[in-house]
Amino acid sequence: MSDITLPTEAEIQAIDESTFIWDDLLDGILTLEQGKVVKFLTDQVDADEVISIREAYSGTGKTANFVRENATNGNSFKIVTVDQFVDTYLYTGDYFENCENAPNVFQLNTSNTRELVFDEDGTPTHVKVFDPYANSEPTLVRTIDLSVQPSFLTKQELSEVTPLIAPMSAIKDFEGNPMASSGDFVPKVVIYITWPVTLGSEEHEKDALDRELAATMKALPVGGVMFITHFHTPKTNGCFWNAYEGVKHAGYEFEESWICNTETDGSGPWTCVAIKRTS
Predict the structure, then answer these.
(1) Beta partners for residue 82, in sequence order
(2) Residues 6 or more apart in contact with residue 263 via CB below 8 angstroms
(3) What is the DSSP string of 104-169?
């Protein structure tokens, strides 16, 4: 089992991006600078392990295929992209084709965790949030009223967030076959590519990101690593700290590395962060 070390800024800057296999034409929000960190981390993943790529609204296959083509064991370990795959902003219908139908590339489609409710004019008014895995039928967890400002979770409440753990049977390859018939999805590395701009309901987006980051951090195994992009943007930065402090309040311990500075001398904002759960 791999023991992944977090990168320093110097180690990231030393990586030669000109050696990458990179598709400029394929839609996706992964950048070359972020790709350096992704390669550094995934080069340490053993052939029998699993990584997760969480990229809401942008699961085109760009990131998954970058990992597959550039990581040392990229054609061996399992790569799972988590998205709703609903083509809201970027077209995700060619995900598997963009990954060349590779047998180690999978999807976890989370469209069954959300249901938008519209009024008679077609305006979204509510969001229903479901747990599709706990019972034979999806269980309603909460209903969000988009006309009311959210009540943000406190540090204590974030410390009590329960991760939504998908079964391996919900994760499918290009032919629709499950990754496994039993067991839970607990990836060694999580690449969390946050959507960098608001989608029109910023306060609700912050509330959702607080909860999801906390849940994802809590789901990391000891030794597991999470890499988060767009750390310098106000939404991601604020939500990271809310979630991080909440999860540490629950007794979880981490080490962290701030990376991808906007300035070569390290005087600018850090645009990414990587954390590793130590206990």
Answers:
(1) 54, 108
(2) none
(3) TEEEEE-GGGEEEEE-TTS-EEEEEEEESSSSSS-EEEEEEETTS---PPPHHHHHTPPP-PPBGG
Type of residue found at 263: E
Residue 195 has pLDDT above 90, yes or no: no
For residue 89, what are the CA distances in angstroms to 10, 42, 51, 84, 212?
34, 27, 24, 11, 20
Task: Give the pair of three-digit tokens for residue 127.
Answer: 């969001």
**Tens of pLDDT along 100-144?**
999 999 999 999 999 999 999 999 899 999 999 988 889 999 999
Count how many Cα atoms sit within 13 Å of the Cα of residue 15 in the half-sphere of its side chain. 21
Can you read off the two tokens belonging to residue 73? 């064991």
Amino acid at 264: T
Q: What single letter denotes the amino acid at residue 72?
A: T
Question: Measuring CA to CA, which residue among 73, 63, 3, 5 is closest to residue 34?
Answer: 63
- How do residues 244-259 score in pLDDT, each as one tens digit? 999 999 999 999 999 9
Q: What is the pTM of this model?
A: 0.95
> By the 8 A CB rule, do 231 and 272 touch?
yes
Residue whose pair of structure tokens reads 């004019």 in the numeric block: 121
Q: Are 133 and 117 in contact (CB under 8 A)?
A: no
Q: What's the whole-number average pLDDT of the chain?
A: 95
Instruction: Decide if 113 contacts 80 (C-beta within 8 A).
Output: no
Write out pLDDT tens, residues 22-76: 988 899 999 999 999 999 999 999 999 999 999 988 999 999 999 999 999 999 9
Residue 237 Cα distances to 206, 210, 243, angstroms: 10, 10, 10
- Give the Cα separation of 77 and 249 in Å (integer): 33
User: Hey, which residues does 115 pair with through a beta bridge?
Assistant: 128
Domains present along the chain, CATH in parentheses: 9-277 (3.40.50.150)
* H or E stretch covering 224: none
